[in-house]
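Pinned message: reference record for Lipoate--protein ligase
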Amino acid sequence: MSLWNPQSDKPLSVVIEDPSGDPSADLERGVQLLRQVQSGERGALLRIYRPDPTLAFGQRDIRLAGYEAAREVAQQHGFAPLVRKAGGRAAAYHRGTLIVDHIEPEDGSVMRQQIRFETFAQLYANAFQRVGVNAQVGPIPGEYCPGDHSVHGTPDESSPRKFPVKLVGTAQRVVSGAWLFSSVFVVEGSASLRQVLDGVYQAMGVAMDPTTVGAANDLLAGVTTEAFSAALLEEYREHATLIGL
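Predicted structure (tokens):
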């Protein structure tokens, strides 16, 4: 029995992808994999990739009067404006971030949505702690794409930045018999993310404190996306058998 799925003790296939150059196709790929897992064509998997610059709007964002202006802001900053099918508010990512789509078959998967948020948040905080970042579970005031199970990092005396920053945003998509838990880990290059998110949230008229937009290497100099990816897989190995590496 796995930590996040009491119905499964099967291994997780790890699929590490390069971005296709088409952010829309990369975003849609997660939904395609979810359907394949739902149909039994594929088993449980972790899809990991470092995306091209993308501004992923949530379903609530597209109903705002400032949505079209926000799309233009994203394009001006070089981020492809897209709409994701999972929940949440606007989030930005680029090659300094890591996206993980964890997909599994599970009967009655809608009943365990809250438990998955709690379980994965702690797992992800532990992974950041493995690379020396002081990560904790919980929202910080004014964060973008707010959620009760955000993972944030707090600075110490030697940190380049002095404010808590959001490190992980998560969202779920649940279908009959399967679920997709999608997460964005911000490790490097926060300046461009801060600029585009500040502009996008202002255009939408949604309150957001840009100082909450940061990255792991804002808190601990020298942390790389490669190092964090390895730490995340090590944390997963504490709870599951990984194959395909």
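Pinned by admin. Summary line: Residues 113-130 form the longest helix (18 residues).
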